[in-house]
Amino acid sequence: MGVTWHWGKLWRMAHPLEQAVAAIVLTFQQYAELSGNKHKLCQAELKELLQKELPTWVPTELRECDYNKFMSVLDTNKDCEVDFMEYVRALACLCTYCHEYFKTCPPEPPCSQ
Fold first, then answer.
1. 50, 42 in Cβ contact below 8 A?
2. Which residues neighbour 38 within 8 Å (Cβ) at sequence distance 6 or greater?
3. Residue 83 DSSP SS3
4. Strands 40-41, 82-83: pairing kind
5. Alpha carbons 68 and 72: distance in angstroms, whole number
6. How far apart are CA 18 and CA 31, in angstroms?
7. Which helix (H) or strand (E) holds 97?
8. pLDDT 10s digit of each residue in the chain, 113 long?
9. Nearest-angstrom CA–CA distance, 41 and 86
10. What start and end residues bound the annotated signal peptide (predicted)?
11. DSSP characters for 27-60?
């Protein structure tokens, strides 16, 4: 059984985390639908999403080769597109590397092996 969000219901929700999750899904859908495959982002869609939706988090001086590298890192299954799971991992990484809250986190312990 899945959960479906609708814009009208979204704004009536009392919990900010519910609103944030719905916004993450709806933003992905909005950009993924631009080229026809509503379940994946091509590099152009990902670039547009980053530039328009995260303008203060993504440096404006990124060159095309930087987007190519970013895409290759996100595209873990190497199908030249970013699916929703890859997109969510990217958002988590952006939070970890760009948000002030995480800048004071202790480094991860070294691998025990």
1. no
2. 29, 32
3. strand
4. antiparallel
5. 6
6. 20
7. helix 84-98
8. 345 555 555 556 568 898 899 999 999 999 999 988 999 999 889 889 988 998 887 766 667 777 788 788 888 999 999 999 999 988 887 788 777 887 787 666 543 43
9. 10
10. 1-22
11. HHHHHHGGGS-TTEE-HHHHHHHHHHH-TTTS-T
Q: How many residues does the chain have?
A: 113
Burial class (CB in 10 A: 0-12, 13-18, 19+), 19: middle
- For 82, which DSSP code? E
How would CATH label the architecture of 8-93? Orthogonal Bundle (1.10)
CA angle in degrees (0–180, nearest 5) for 84-87-93: 145
User: Nearest 5°: phi and psi at 79?
Assistant: -100, 10
**CA geometry: angle at 92 spanning 62 and 66, to 5°?**
15
Tell me the domain boundaries of the chain: 8-93
